[in-house]
Amino acid sequence: MSKLMTSLTLAAALVLSACSTTSPDVVQRGDAQRLSQVQDATVLSSRPVTVDGSQSGVGAVAGGVTGAIAGSSVGGRREGQIVGVIGAVAGAVIGNAIERSATREDALEIIVQLRNGERRAIIQAKGTEAFNSGDPVVLVTTGGKTRVTRAPAVVPASNG
């Protein structure tokens, strides 16, 4: 039964970690082929932050079930029931902690100034781009979510 518990816990952790990406380098399927608003801006500052993990309940449920199964196999019928309940509670607490840890992300808080002088702050997961004070960037807003990316180099059109 110990191998089963280990396998279930590992499977739950893998499922939870697969669900956690808000990377600016990954575009959600629903955002593909949608028109986005683009605004030019300049980076004022950028600092690392941590986005706290989610607690959807999936980790607690998976941990609780795993703990109940493992605990119920201990001793006789009565002991198994008692240890099963204790295992379920302990498993739920551990599963919740695993979910929260697996969905925690390193991120950046980027403060920018728009061309009209307004300032905005955007928090996004760390991607492949680094942002320094003075960098030209664009804010890409799609479906109410905004991400920051480096501004592309502007090449003057040739008249010839």
Distance between the termini: 76 Å
Element string (H = helix, E = strand): HEHHEEEE
In total, how many beta strands? 5
Strand order of the largest sheet: 3-2-1-4-5
Coarse structural class: alpha+beta
Beta-strand portion reads 25-35%
Tell me, what's the shape? Answer: elongated
User: How many distinct helices?
Assistant: 3
| Helix content class | 25-40%
Report the major sheet: 5 strands, antiparallel
Low-confidence stretches: 13-21
Structurally, the number of domains stands at 2
Q: How would you state the average pLDDT, rounded?
A: 76
Radius of gyration: 23 Å
Domain Glycine zipper 2TM: 59-99
Keywords: Signal
Signal peptide: 1-18
Pfam families: Rick_17kDa_Anti
Q: What would the keywords be for this entry?
A:
160 residues; alpha+beta; OB fold (Dihydrolipoamide Acetyltransferase, E2P); 2 domains; 36% helix
Structural features, described:
It is a single chain. The protein has helices at 2-18, 58-72, 77-102, and strands spanning 37-51, 105-114, 119-125, 136-142, 145-150. The chain is α+β, with helices and mostly antiparallel strands and 160 residues long. It folds into 2 domains: 1-22 and 54-102, no CATH class; 35-52 and 105-152, OB fold (Dihydrolipoamide Acetyltransferase, E2P) (Beta Barrel), CATH 2.40.50. A hairpin with a 2-residue loop joins strand 4 and strand 5 (145-150). The longest helix has 26 residues, at 77-102.
